[in-house]
Automatic annotation (TrEMBL):
Keywords: Pyridoxal phosphate. It comes from Candidatus Buchananbacteria bacterium RIFCSPHIGHO2_02_FULL_45_11b. CDD domains: AHBA_syn. One of its GO terms (molecular function) is transaminase activity. This is Lipopolysaccharide biosynthesis protein RfbH. Its cofactor is pyridoxal 5'-phosphate. Pfam families: DegT_DnrJ_EryC1. Belongs to the DegT/DnrJ/EryC1 family. GO terms for biological process: polysaccharide biosynthetic process.
Amino acid sequence: MNQELENLIRKHYQENFANKKIVPGKNTIPASGKFFGAEELVAMTQAVLEGWWTEGRYAEEFENKFAGWLGVKYCTTTNSGSSANLIAVAALTSFRLGEKRLKPGDEVITIAAGFPTTVNPLIVNQLVPVFVDIEIETLNIKADDLEKAVSQKTKAVILPHNIGNAFNLKAVKALCEKRQLWLIEDCCDALGTTYDGKLVGTFGDLATFSFYAGHHMAMGEGGAVVTSDEFLNRIVRSVRDWGRDCQCKTGHDNTCGKRFVWKLGDLPEGYDHKFIFSEIGYNLRITDIQAALGLVQLEKLPIFTQRRKDNFSYLLNKLKEFEKYFILPKAENLSEPSWFGFYLTLKPNCPFKRFDLVQFLETNKILTRLILAGNLCRQPYFLNYNVKYRKADNLANTDIVMNNSFWVGCYHGLNKEHMEYIYQNIKKFIDQYDDR
């Protein structure tokens, strides 16, 4: 890219984005959002000008840098976190895994108080979700209930680090090792969170991430599957790339020197390896344009993470005065979260309803969100499609969160001024009911 064009891009950023501010009371405070500078626009434009556009050198560079930053051996980029979950689950159904593969009817432990695309890959692969209840303070699985969820059919665990809070990995890992279960960490809402000093995504057999525009770092759309197992990584990449048996990089042919010597399936001997498909696969790759954006955002991730932590901490300290009304969020033991949002749960004796508080905040230009799907078992599609699942208990806390919890933004595009405005509005609402 010549300097003249780069200068024009930077000028465009200054004129259209640099001075855009979220003014509390005047502009809506988002629950989440993207945060970027001129360098992201320059990087994406450079990728466009190179003319490759599909997955290429930028994607490969991002995969290498992300794996290195995380501390795993392999990263496979995807077009979304949802696709990453689909690939991770599908990979564990591969014939290549022999008796360890997940088969139709096998059970997988998870939670109902999460996002549908953690669980949907189980359903489409004819696996049976087994739902365990959560703790209200952490929004994560009740570790004491794990063992009772296990049956002879249990073969895996897939759990999200809910709203950025790492689940009890010590207990979950112990169960998986004891019972020889696969573990998938869904880190889509928890990029940058650590557990016992290690980044989440490094504990499971596989882990997934999302780089959606409203997440911890952005590619617009994007995601990743990571692992340190070379064999699993090969399956993951095959599932992502149409199920193709060939492992050549995009734009490369015959890197193994055996392109026309294979005899697989009932195909004729010598059938082009680039068109031999051994897995049930998809096309779920990113573009180099997204990867170029991701490379710049990855460099800024430590700053983004600290801002999220600071915003969350500020709001938590301010809202402690209202513990009479709220169950406040709590980090899981050994977890240092990169919080996705700041969540509150109304106590049973609360004199007001969630609906009224949420409407008050929304009217005052503070966007709110519920705890994702609430209770998946109660979602219309579970009923409409007669989804097969099992509950390890009555999911009482899951229902409480569904009915009484919500969250507001603490993302890295916000600051102390926004947190104070959120606090002041919650206080203003509560003052109507407070008898102090």
